[in-house]
Design goal:
This protein has helices spanning 22-35, 50-61, 70-94, 105-115, 120-131, 146-155, 161-164, 172-189, 200-212, and strands at residues 2-3, 6-8, 10-15, 40-44, 98-102, 138-143, 192-195, 218-219. By secondary structure, the protein is of the alpha/beta class. The protein has one domain (7-219): P-loop containing nucleotide triphosphate hydrolases (Rossmann fold, 3-Layer(aba) Sandwich), CATH 3.40.50.300. It has a five-stranded parallel beta sheet, sandwiched between helices. The model is unreliable at 1-5 and 233-237 (pLDDT under 50).
Amino acid sequence: MTIDGRRRGLFIAFEGPEGSGKSTQAQVLTDRLQQAGLDVLLTREPGGTELGERLRNLMFRERSLPELDPRVQALLMLAARAQHVSERLRPWLNEGGVVVCDRFAASTLAYQGAGFGLDVAELESMNAFATAGVVPDVTVLLDLDVQIGLMRSLSQRGTDWEKAGGMNAQKLEFHARVRRSYLEQAEAHGWAVLDATQSPEDLSLEIWRRVEHEFEAHTLRAAEAVQPPLPDLAGRS
């Protein structure tokens, strides 16, 4: 939706291979946007809704992801995305809010497409169906060598299955294909590609510089209340 030539709401997505620091930088950016007085929704995929978090729990916390057929993975991710768009993203954006999302549609093309070898054209069509026209205004790709990223991710895993297993359990060649897909998508769509090996402080400053010029082109809502938290379904049956 546009008002006087300005788009309503602002959608920022973070993408990148494992260990690139997406979640950390998404939180830092959210904090900075809130300090600027904007109404910000920080969310993630898969997840962001009760259904999405249940599907995330099914795929990651219950350790079933490595056993799922890639087509099933894709369908579950897309189901979570469709609900995410309908329940949270579109309403938030339509009211002029800012969305910061840790992964979005590009991740399906990178992981289930390039990584697992599913047909990318089919996935693009399914993504279009799931997102129903909701696409990021800004996509930030945090890029780094996959070996460095996996070492980072696994060193931080503790007892977290999402880091210890899941996608991290795939071979190095899988992650190399994922990274190539991300870089190809970035070139095709004009994403901001940033070096994820720089210090977190320098990286967050560079991200802010890529985002702040978008404010004038969008009608954005001032913050009035704290956003509802992501559903926390850990430990539920």
